[in-house]
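In these records, each integer encodes one residue's backbone shape. Here is one protein:

___
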Amino acid sequence: MSRDSPPLSTLLPPLICGTATFNNQYNPDPYAIPTTAIVHEALALGVRAFDTSPYYGPAEDLLGAALDTPFVRQNFPRRDYFLLTKVGRISSNVFDYSASWIRHSVQRSLERLHTDYLDVVYCHDVEFVSPDEVSTAVMELRRIRAETGAIKYVGISGYPVNPLCELAEMILDKTGEPLDIVMSYANFTLQNTQLASVALPRLRAAGVDVVPNASVLGMGLLRRTGVPIGAQGDFHPSPEKLRAAIQAASDWSDAQDIPDPRIEKVAIRWAFENWMREGASVGARGDPASGIPWTRETMDPSGGTKLGVSVMGVSNTEELHETMRVWRSILAGLDDGEKRAVASGRGANDHAWSLKRQKEVQLLATGIRTVLGEWVDYTWPSPTPGFVNQRFAPANPAPLPTPVASPTRCQNKP
């Protein structure tokens, strides 16, 4: 099952638009979100990669519908953008990593996304299943890659970093081929940096090419208003004491005499900026969506500087524009940032402003982590103790009916 594609890190853009928000976990009604406008505007702003999953409710369908439009077909050929999706997770407590389900899931994603191929397919939330199940799924994805070309790159995703490292090491040891990509979420944030401190050395040693950092707000934990409440209610696994610590840190940040000290603003920029540097060794050289006019973003192999890859999540075009403003400001603060800022039309002052904001955010981040104290680098259990995959759980047999008492022969003689 050899592969012919160039390394993923030579192609993948360092900024990916995630679609977990196209779901009723984060929003009361995902169909009320302007998903088509978000996707079209993201493409117009230079974003060239979209991450989704069958587990994200209607997200694959909504993303596919947005891409299957005259605007996209006429302006952005399929080769101009990356599609990353997942297999294996069906619902909160149902997983299927069998070869037959993997094939079914891949085919369904192709149809939903209106495409002949998927650039990346992850095994979704691998910590919930056994290593043998992960191995089976990875091998089946690689078989599809080799036999049909419907998949270009194969990886795994999940929350706790140690299982991700163990599985990446196992796959390399068993197959001699490293995983192309391993994604973790909520593990490089203001609150928790284990993706860098624990996972990065092991994933590099396991030959993993790209390690994206997803959910820079910790699934919405790092917000002034608290965790998001969608149609599923309060789904967030964080304990109340951690939430209280986040609120205290948010209140402290608000009280500082520094422009725009809101914790979510600090958290987004801090994670993007720091992972861009710390994750560079497992980053990517694709077009960074810098906004330089007259330069068509490309999916061709690039010789540019590797940047740590981040996944952003937005629920409306205003959030998209604000996130892109922050992203481009961070790019302007890099070593070649002044040249980039001038070329993009924002001027040399953008470079100086970026460096100033970098210092402000670092001051706020240091204070926030001090307030968090013992909750820095805390991770919640995933899965929770006692978890049982309901896909293959034995059905509880129906209780036997209570026997009717045998009739008692009448002792009275006629």
User: Anything to note?
Assistant: The chain has a mean pLDDT of 92.
